[in-house]
Amino acid sequence: MGDRSAVVVLEEVRARLRSVPGFETGHGLPHLAYENGTLTIEGEVDGVGTKKRMLRAAAGVPGVEGVVDRLRVRPAEPMGDREIRDHVARAFLGEPAFAELAAFERRGEKLEPIRASPIDLRGRLEIEVADGIVTLDGTVPGLDHKRLAGLLAWWVPGVRDVVNGIAVEPPEEDSDGAIADACRMALEKDPFVDASQIRISVRDRRVTLGGVVPSEDQRRMAENDIWALFGVDAVDNEIRVHR
Question: Using alpha carbons only, how large is the chain's radius of gyration in Å?
Answer without folding.
Answer: 19
